[in-house]
């Protein structure tokens, strides 16, 4: 199927498959963007990351990214695992100047590395089995994500060209897709992770 892929992601992250939206080669596409913002109270720093289920930016450093996010952490973990398994990384993965990019002969090895890491992750989450490849990629305590609602319709290019007083014969075999991107609402409500009852509240 022919078309375009549009990425909608946090600027601090490399786009992954779940960040892409597919658009046809012709038609009208409306993309309504809705930000999803999560903040965390500073009071929760008293708890361990595993208890609050998130990392503050200063608590978790990554080798290839200046900003910690769960997606960046998972990609870096996959990169390191692929490098250990295949002595190379995929072209889209972060790397240093000495790291080799996997060629066609290493494609199956890189694919298997991704499958193995996903399997270990599922075993750890579902069966609570401790695995060697624990990425420890908790969500960030301060996150921003974008969700998009897409609506599409057909357009009559010839009629548009006539309105614009443009010779339609010149563009007879051309397909056009008009993409309009806008925020769904002028305002949005951010969510905040906080402490429901503190130690002092329980004593009182």
From TrEMBL:
Broad class of where this protein is predominantly found: membrane
Membrane topology: Multi-pass membrane protein
Record-level GO cellular component terms: plasma membrane
GO molecular function annotation: ligand-gated sodium channel activity
Localization, UniProt: Membrane
Keywords: Ion channel, Ion transport, Membrane, Sodium, Sodium channel, Sodium transport, Transmembrane, Transmembrane helix, Transport
Pfam families registered for this protein in UniProt: ASC (PF00858)
Annotated family: Belongs to the amiloride-sensitive sodium channel (TC 1.A.6) family.
Name by which UniProt lists this protein: Uncharacterized protein
Classification of source organism: Eukaryota, Metazoa, Ecdysozoa, Arthropoda, Hexapoda
